[in-house]
Amino acid sequence: TPDPRRKGTNAELAAYRLDRLLELELVPVTVARELDGKQGTLQFLPSGVRDEAYRAAGGQSSSAQCPLRRQWNSMYIFDALIYNDSRSAASMVYDPGNWQLMSMGHASALSTKRGLPRYLAEIPLELTSVWVDALSGLTDEVLVQNLADVLDKRRIRALGSRRDALLERAAN
């Protein structure tokens, strides 16, 4: 749901679009919807999803098609890009059929902040050549073209700055 304090911003929808631009498929399908005159979003989750606390408590996921370490790294880089500092076990859900990670809870993301979210301070980000290529493809023009209706200019500029900082980090 759009935050009324962040006029013209729909971070959930922006996160979904950005996820698809990066070809991650971490963010569940998210669409804009109006209900009783209020703008918001609707996300599709498969039935029976389980959160990170459930997965960790049961020691499950050995049958994950993609190793969880790789899935988490993608989520960490995505959270750094969108400055998502509200990551929690409840916002990490899995389809237990294949233990595919789905990233939720982006309503407070995509601010104008710089740097990394606090929770990523001690986590190494593995910026592979695939990530460098994907981030390089997110030109300022691509960001404006795909996000201008859900993010204001300041947030798009901040997103571009965080992209540049991640690319610089990968170069070092």
Topology readout:
Blueprint: H1 11-21, E1 30-35, E2 38-43, E3 50-51, H2 52-58, H3 68-82, E4 92-95, E5 100-103, H4 129-136, H5 140-147, H6 153-171
Antiparallel strand pairs: 1-2, 3-4, 4-5
The N- and C-terminal alpha carbons lie at a distance of: 38 Å
Described by strand count, sense and barrel closure, the largest sheet is: 3 strands, antiparallel
Tell me, rounded to a whole number, the average pLDDT: 90
Q: Strand arrangement, largest sheet?
A: 3-4-5
The number of helical runs is 6
Total number of strands:
5
β-sheet strand percentage = 5-15%
What structural category arises from helix and sheet content?
alpha+beta
Q: Helix and strand string, N-terminal first? A: HEEEHHEEHHH
Rg measurement, Å: 16 Å
Helix content percent band: 25-40%
Molecular shape: globular
Residue ranges: pLDDT <50 for 5 or more in a row? 1-6
Structural account:
The structure is a single chain. The chain is an alpha+beta fold. It contains six helices and five strands, in the order αβββααββααα. It has helices at about 10-20, 50-60, 70-80, 130-135, 140-145, 155-170; strands at about 30-35, 40-45, 50, 90-95, 100-105. The strands form two sheets. Strands 3-4-5 form a three-stranded antiparallel sheet. Strands 1-2 form a two-stranded antiparallel sheet. β1 and β2 form a beta hairpin. α3 packs across α6 and α5 runs antiparallel to α6. The longest helix has 19 residues, at about 155-170. The protein is globular.
